[in-house]
Amino acid sequence: MIENEADYLRYLEQKGVGSQDRVASSQKSYVSYLNSVSKSMNKPISSEWIKTEEDIEQIIRTIERQGERKSKTIANYKTALKHYLHFSNALQGI
């Protein structure tokens, strides 16, 4: 689950994420990545949980320790999480 998922998608679109996509939607992929992170961590993606870059690093370290994901997938998770953090900060006026 992703808090404010529809708004997150609009944010990605406004920022031009995936504007050059020809095969798949980066925006929808980021939502998929965040849903995977949420499932792996058994916790919904929210602005209460993801407040800082350090929060993201801690999440990534936990997922890496699980040993179930390839490094490219983990990098995609990190990118999606960073976009979520920026989106969340924009909503809060930070």
Describe this structure in words.
- The protein has 94 residues and is mostly helical.
- It has one domain (5-14, 24-92).
- It contains four helices and no strands.
- The protein has helices spanning 5-14, 26-41, 53-66, 71-92.
- The longest helix has 22 residues, at 71-92.
- The relative contact order is 0.19.
List low-pLDDT spans.
none
Straight-line distance between termini: 23 Å
- Helix content estimate: 55-70%
Write down the secondary-structure element order. Answer: HHHH
What's the pLDDT, averaged over the residues? 89
Question: Rounded to an integer, what's the Rg over CA atoms?
Answer: 13 Å
Total number of domains: 1
Structural class: mainly alpha
Question: What overall form do the CA principal axes indicate?
Answer: globular
Beta content: under 5%
Largest sheet: none
Oligomeric assembly: single chain
Count of β-strands: 0
Count of alpha/pi helices: 4
Short recap of the structure:
With 94 residues, the protein is mainly α. It has helices at 5-14, 26-41, 53-66, 71-92.
Q: Would you spell out the secondary-structure blueprint of this structure?
A:
Elements: H1 5-14, H2 26-41, H3 53-66, H4 71-92
Helix pairs in contact: 2-4, 3-4
Task: List its traits.
single chain, 94 residues, mainly alpha, 66% helix, globular
